[in-house]
Each structure stands twice: as structure tokens, then as C-alpha cells.
Amino acid sequence: MLIKQLININKDHVNQIIEAIALVADMKIKLTKSEKKYVDLVLQDASKQIDAKFWDYDEKQEFFKGLKSNQPVSIKAVVGEYQGALQLTIKEIDLINDTEVDIRSLTPTSDWEIESMKKGLQYFYDKVQRPHLKTLLDKMIFATDHYEKFCTYPAARRVHHNFYHGLLQHVLEVLKYAYTVATTKKLSERQMERLIVMAFLHDWAKIWEYKQLPETGFTEEGSMLGHIFLGAHATLNTIEEIEGFDNDDKLIILNGILGHHGKLEFGSPVLPKTVEAQILHHADIMSGDVESILSFMKEEEGKEDSFTGKLWNMGTEFYKKG
């Protein structure tokens, strides 16, 4: 059975053989409990990512030694299920010449229009009036060596906004949610500007944490240090370069970045200590959770069940009819 898009693979295909064209997003050589080598892959196209295994590594080790991430391949595989998620067992895999397929067509991309998103950034940037805060954004967001990455990188590896322009879309969502709450609760102009800066910068270091698409996964810096530390460290260094930067603004912005995951067990080294930081945390959660739910529901379009499968990072199923 020829599958034109990975999103078309569903539980009705379990135990069936499918053929597809996909991009190797990630690949690792691992050992079974009996110390036999196998290949653990993440395959993707513009619609979906899916885990896959190739168990007979020894029979095709030269192929896999030469295979790199972000290479397009054709596969023949058996559809299976593991811990509630679909998984492919690859029987045949071959390279496709880069000239025969557009790599970008195999890479998920935001369905938001890029120029509109860039205008959205400018809209919120223009709301920041204090010169030292504006300079901070100039240096970290709009500097030429950062801006293009900020506008193209993903915001996550798998869970939410894991696509081209994903970080940009996520930051805009957080800005919108945070600004709505802040205006509803009538925060002061100074609080509002600090909150906007925090929203701009809270995930900024994901341009260092993640590899550039179409590759997926973490950089060495990302694995060792994570985006929260990297972002706060870079922000502090940049602040120290700006003459006369207000100390209260510095502490509040840094606490917002460090505390935006909301809980110590979720990776934040400190808890949110200001109303701005709390608003940022909840705006961040809302953006990620809603995107996760909608993306998961889209993956399960066409299935007759009333509910999705269990979304692992939410711990529940979601009702699809509406």
C-alpha cells in the first residue's frame, strides 16, 4: 500500500505493509538486551513524524553508516503499535536523490503566513517605549545574526510547534495571550513592557538548544545546558552591555525567563516571583498545550472514534466532535 503522507497512517493499517517517502529526522544505532545492533529512526514529512525501527542492522550496516539526518528515503515497512503510539518496522529502505524530491516538502512548516508573523513581532516591539528595554530586544531578537534563526527554528523537538517558523509562531501566541491578560487586569505600562520583553525572550535560546530543521534533536549545548539557562545567561550578558539598565527591570526579566516553566520539577531553577512572570508562565503553557491538542487531533482526522488516543504529555484523550 502506497502512503503519500505519513499522516495517513493510522491504526487501521496495523500489521499491514506500507510504502512511503520520508525524511530521516533522527537516527541512532542501539543495542537490544541481547546486544544485537538495531537502528532507531524518526521519520518525517510535512504532515507528521513517526518512530521506526530497522532490526537487521548487520545486513545493511554500510548503508546506515553512510546515512545522515535530513536525507530523503523510500521505505517499505510494517505498521505496528507500541505503548499506544504507531511505529514502523522497516523491511526495505533506500536513498532518494536530493534532486528528485524537495526537502522542504518533507519538513513540517507553520501554516501561519511568515510576513504576517514578522509584522506581529513589530507590532509588539513598537509597544516597548523604554530605551533600555528596546535596546535589549534590538540586540537579542532583531540583530542580523539572530533574527533569521528566531524566525525559522522550531519551538520543540516533538510536543508542540516542532516545525519551520514554530518558535516565531509560539512567541507570537505567548505575546498575544500575555498581552490580553495584562490589559484585562490593567497592569501598569512598565509592567506591560517588561512582560512583552519576557515573552519575546523566554524561549530565545531554542535557536541554540535545537538543531536547524530539517534535522531534529538537540545541539550539544542544548543537551548539556538547556534553553532556560542559555537564555537567561545570554540575556544577563546583553543587559550588562547596556549602559544604565534598570536593576529592577533586570531582575524581573531574568526571573521571568528562569521561571517560565512554572515549577522546579519542570526544569525552572526558580519559581515565578512577579505577576508578569506568572502571566508569562500561563501564556506559555496555554500556547504549548493548545497546539499539542490541535496537532494531535489533526493527526487523527478521518478516524471514526469520538475521542483521540491518549495524548501522552496531557495524560488524557480529547473529544474530536464539534
From TrEMBL:
Ranges of residues in domain HD/PDEase: 163-298
Protein's UniProt keywords contain Transport: no
Superkingdom: Bacteria
Pfam family, one: tRNA_anti-codon
Keywords: Hydrolase
Gene3D superfamilies the record matches: Hypothetical protein af1432, Nucleic acid-binding proteins
Annotated organism of origin: Alkaliphilus pronyensis
Any one GO MF annotation of this record: hydrolase activity
Protein's UniProt name: HD domain-containing protein
GO terms for biological process, alphabetical: rRNA 3'-end processing
